[in-house]
Amino acid sequence: LVMAAAPAFGQAYPNKPITMIVPFAAGGPTDLIARIVGERMGKELGQQFIIENVTGAAGTIAMAKLARSAPDGYTIGIGHVGTNVANAVIYTKLGFDLLGDLEPIARLPANGMLVVSSNNVPAKSLKELVEYLKANPDKVSGGTAGIGSGAHLGALAFNKATGVSYQLVPYRGTGPAMQDLLANQIQVMVDQSANSLPQVQAGKIRAYAVTSAKRSPAMPDIPTAAEAGYPMEVSIWNGLWAPKGTPKDIIDKLNAAAVTALADPAVRKRMDELGLDTPTPEQMKPAAFAAFQKAELAYWKPILEAAGVKAE
Ligand code: MLT
């Protein structure tokens, strides 16, 4: 029996809990995905994943904190197309180098967005919602999770597709924004299905369309935006990153745990129910994920620059 050589630095990694930074408030889609995946990864690695919600500036504060953390595998972060692509174009003082200071660990599930309103809005279709917004510009405001957040990208896409824009109210996440939507404090949102679909299914808010190219099996009776007359495609994909310099064997161990977590039938069921599409193990690999992130940066940069979206 050949014993594996004892690692140079004490016990094998991980030998203590792992912190996962979540760039938005508890109760939102990013937080929910982090908790589902983190809990199952923790089981795989035999260490607890501790969620740390670091909010503000649509996730730039969180990612800057991650970039400054020790590259030892004990601090990782979940981010998405807003925090780890759009913000690099939007924020002139990002506080870190998106590609230079962060190391991709694994690509995570993606979800389309739902165009939703409070039940108080007198519209029964996307067309009627657009008419209502046009006729009542001062009566309607909508939630985002800050400039560059997924909900903000969704609002931009909505504006481009319908020619109508609504007053944007920034929250620390679309969890808190949802509370105001339920209370009709705000009236509309373009929000990740992971956050809005349960509320739609409970009859507490109304969905008009989904922004994915085809309908989601989780919500077969919600038309795509194209079917509803206003083609718009936005998908909010998620991923895990570590500080640059985290050893490759640790990155690979975290990647393997994420692949196992997303292959777990109970996790798959939750992802499917929430309208999330899970990438293949090959797509989840660090190198494939890094290439995907770069391609997304090339896609969103001209769009965001043309839209003149800028923030400090
Ligand atoms: C967003 O980008 O809108 C955020 O993901 C919302 C959230 O997770 O709270």
TrEMBL record:
Keywords, alphabetical: Signal
SUPFAM superfamilies registered for this protein in UniProt: Periplasmic binding protein-like II
Coiled-coil region list: none
Keyword Signal among record annotations: yes
Name of the protein this chain belongs to: ABC transporter substrate-binding protein
TM annotation in the entry: none
InterPro entries, A to Z: BUG, Bug_dom1
Species per Swiss-Prot/TrEMBL record: Reyranella soli
Family to which the UniProt record says this protein belongs: Belongs to the UPF0065 (bug) family.
